[in-house]
Design the sequence.
């Protein structure tokens, strides 16, 4: 794996990452005036569907001088670029570095405090070019904002990526359902004290990845980000709350949550691909700061960026866990648009009963997974043409389908039964070893394929 320290480089901030994408022709500049109400979201959706580049919107209607960036991590190649590794090594780099915790470093100076608003001068709706993504969304939402807080009991800090609704000039509602922050809020409620928080927009991209990574209780996720970077994340103290945030951030919003107060939050077109609403805690803003020329990072829900992040984090964990009992599994991916609900994995040199057992294990032990497809390792699982070909030529429904009824389903699947149960399906799209010649996939010699790719890249460059 090409991941040595001598060849590794990470990005100090979002600006460096954006510059690197531009240098690699993986960024498009959109200078036409465009509205943050539906239009930017519509473009991000199209870019994701076409596996297109990241985008920088430099003329956002109603927000002169503010720039919006989107689809930044919407493809494995850009996630790999953030890690500084080839795309083929991305999952391995993620898993290895996640265990190499690097504590943060404190600094005194930071560009994110170049422009500072005291509480009485904060107007979230005028300062932040937050997007309204879908036609039934009730208001602008922060979709790629990392929230930081401390455990009120231990003082240990951590972070998470949570949707945040801009409700008024100085009030936000935050959906807290996942640890560690939901546990911090529960402790604050038990101790009858407010929870101080800070919301960072546009930090180093690996901080965003770390914020959605799974970790044991009590872990400070910023140490995971340090492991991803292989050097500490520089942190700076907030002005009005006892929280530290990445010094590389573009915007920082400081505030206080009263654990006893909840408000209606939504409607919102979520990563599930459906509209959601909830009773959520309120953040009352105590201060805001940003860079002189800030870049607002947006993430379009139910998009290729959701898929890429979920596949890297949840998919890599799932592959590690299944290999513990089924080491013949060679690779695993999540099908785009299914929010982790549909899984494809490849196998090598395994008897069919063991393959069926692996399929059943994936379905039973992971509530989010609703369908699992097993293929031979001659199939490129991220090439959906090959996947559909395997199902079309190697599956007989009466022989190769597995139905597992009444098992725990996903909480974000609106089709589950009232008791939370789901019927899951497995598809064995592998062929029997003794009939390999009948199922052998046609191919072009590798040397000729490499030559064709080189010629195609030259043609593309001339165009």
Sequence:
């Amino acid at each position: 794996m090409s991941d040595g320290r001598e060849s590794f480089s990470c990005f100090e901030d979002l600006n460096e990452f954006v510059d690197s994408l531009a240098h690699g022709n993986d960024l498009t500049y959109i200078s036409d005036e465009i509205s943050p109400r539906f239009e930017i979201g519509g473009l991000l959706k199209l870019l994701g569907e076409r596996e297109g580049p990241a985008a920088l919107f430099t003329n956002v209607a109603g927000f002169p001088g503010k720039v919006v960036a989107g689809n930044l991590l919407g493809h494995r190649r850009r996630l790999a670029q953030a890690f500084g590794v080839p795309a083929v090594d991305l999952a391995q780099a993620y898993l290895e570095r996640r265990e190499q915790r690097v504590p943060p470093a404190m600094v005194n100076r930071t560009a994110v405090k170049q422009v500072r608003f005291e509480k009485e001068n904060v107007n979230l709706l005028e300062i932040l070019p937050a997007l309204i993504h879908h036609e039934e969304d009730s208001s602008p939402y922060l979709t790629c904002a990392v929230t930081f807080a401390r455990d009120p009991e231990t003082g240990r800090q951590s972070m998470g990526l949570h949707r945040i609704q801009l409700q008024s000039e100085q009030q936000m509602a935050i959906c807290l359902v996942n640890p560690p922050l939901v546990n911090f809020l529960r402790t604050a409620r038990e101790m009858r004290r407010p929870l101080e928080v800070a919301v960072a927009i546009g930090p180093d991209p690996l901080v965003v990845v770390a914020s959605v990574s799974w970790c044991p209780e009590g872990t400070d996720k910023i140490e995971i980000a340090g492991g991803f970077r292989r050097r500490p994340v520089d942190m700076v103290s907030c002005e009005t709350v006892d929280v530290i945030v990445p010094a590389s951030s573009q915007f920082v919003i400081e505030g206080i949550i009263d654990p006893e107060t909840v408000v209606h939050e939504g409607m919102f077109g979520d990563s599930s691909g459906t509209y959601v609403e909830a009773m959520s805690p309120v953040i009352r803003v105590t201060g805001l700061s940003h860079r002189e020329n800030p870049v607002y990072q947006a993430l379009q829900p139910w998009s290729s960026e959701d898929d890429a992040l979920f596949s890297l984090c949840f998919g890599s964990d799932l592959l590690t866990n299944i290999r513990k009992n089924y080491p013949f599994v060679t690779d695993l991916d999540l099908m785009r648009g299914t929010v982790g609900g549909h899984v494809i994995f490849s196998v090598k040199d395994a008897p069919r009963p063991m393959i069926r057992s692996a399929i059943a294990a994936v379905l039973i032990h992971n509530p989010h997974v609703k369908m699992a497809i097993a293929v031979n390792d001659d199939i490129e699982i991220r090439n959906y043409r090959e996947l559909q070909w395997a199902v079309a030529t190697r599956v007989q429904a009466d022989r190769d389908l597995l139905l597992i009824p009444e098992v725990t389903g996903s909480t974000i699947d609106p089709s589950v039964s009232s008791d939370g149960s789901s019927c899951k399906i497995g598809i064995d799209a592998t062929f029997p070893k003794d009939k390999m010649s009948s199922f052998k996939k046609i191919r072009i010699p590798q040397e000729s394929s490499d030559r064709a790719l080189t010629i195609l890249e030259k043609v593309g460059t001339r165009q």
